[in-house]
Design brief:
With 196 residues, the chain is mainly α. Helices cover 76% and strands 0% of the residues.
Length: 196
């Protein structure tokens, strides 16, 4: 019998790698949904990263070194969790991993509002661990939807759009803090953005 021609044979779905160009990707609603959702979580990420130390020093009267330890612990737990996320994204669809990560990250700011100090530190660490996957999952989601061949062009072109909310978020929070004397409203807004 004759061997099948592998060049025309359909690949199994788990081995399929789409090849979308930038112009093709720009015409898909999925790309714009990704941009909006990554901006919403980027807003939250910028807020919590920039305002962790001011929150603990200004609101909870923690020393600067203590707040520095909290920030370091938050970033360390997020970094370590990326090992687990790297394994999980190979077993669970990336969209579900992103949803879990977004939800986990969203719980950080609200925990600072609703959980009393110092217990909110533990909640923030857990939230940072669960939500620390964005650095791993973002490139995977683009490659998953649009393929690896043009992922550099697609992500490189979209990257300026993904920096809008992390740039605006910390300034908005600072303005809200200056006008209200509390981070509560800003952290609630950041949580809502992350959940959306």
């Amino acid at each position: 019998t004759e061997e099948p021609n592998n060049s025309t044979e359909r690949k199994p779905s788990w081995d399929y790698d789409p090849e979308w160009t930038l112009s093709e990707a720009l015409r898909t609603p999925t790309l714009w949904i990704l941009i909006v959702s990554l901006n919403l979580i980027g807003f939250l990420a910028g807020v919590i990263t920039v305002h962790t130390v001011p929150y603990f020093t200004l609101i909870e009267n923690m020393s600067a070194i203590g707040a520095g330890y909290v920030l370091t612990g938050r970033l360390f737990s997020a970094s370590i969790s990326r090992i687990l996320w790297g394994i999980l994204v190979e077993k669970i669809p990336v969209r579900w991993c992103l949803a879990m990560s977004f939800l986990g990250r969203s719980l950080g700011p609200i925990s600072l509002v609703v959980i009393p100090y110092p217990y909110n530190i533990g909640a923030l660490m857990v939230s940072s661990s669960v939500g620390g996957a964005l650095g791993i999952l973002q490139p995977v989601v683009f490659a998953n939807y649009y393929g690896r061949k043009f992922t550099g062009t697609i992500q490189g072109t979209m990257r300026p759009l993904l920096t809008i909310s992390p740039l605006i978020g910390p300034l908005l929070v600072a303005l809200l803090y200056d006008s209200t004397g509390t981070f509560n409203l800003a952290f609630i807004i950041a949580t809502i953005c992350g959940i959306l």
